[in-house]
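User: I'm preparing a small set of examples for a lab meeting where we compare how different chains pack in three dimensions. I only have the primary sequence for this one, and I'd like the structure in token form so I can line it up with the others. Please keep the answer compact; I'll paste it straight into my notes.
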Amino acid sequence: MRAILQRVKEASVAVDGNVVGRIGRGLLVFLGIGRDDGPKDTDWMIDKIVNLRIFERDGKFDESVLDVKGGLLVVSQFTLYGDCRKGRRPSFSDAMDVESAREVFDVFVEKARRRVAEVETGVFQASMDVSLVNDGPVTLIVDSKA
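Assistant: Understood. Below is the structure token output for the 146-residue chain.
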């Protein structure tokens, strides 16, 4: 499982011009699900995301999204498994199939909502417009297999 985390002052996602998810301060999470990901990856990733100390206190990264009572905006993004090493078109063979990934994504969001008060999402498999005000900017890559 792979995630791009962006610390944001605010973020939203729209489908067909309609906002379907919006948070204030928190983390925008682009989540990619690999073909071999399972429950351990989901649990590890959620724990890492909610406890990662990337919000500043006294000039240091010392607080988590839980500490600052921030939100999560989770957007499914299979393209995080795009392999661009060969040719000119990325291969997505390492991404989980659509139906299985939808189930894993839903479980991820359900478990995240048990830990974080505000969890919003995009629409799985939709073309989405994502807007954000990056805070920092702070952008991190997290991989459950690395």
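A couple of notes for your slides: Strands lie at 2-15, 18-23, 26-32, 55-57, 60-63, 71-76, 119-121, 129-143. The chain has two helices and eight strands.

User: Perfect, thanks.
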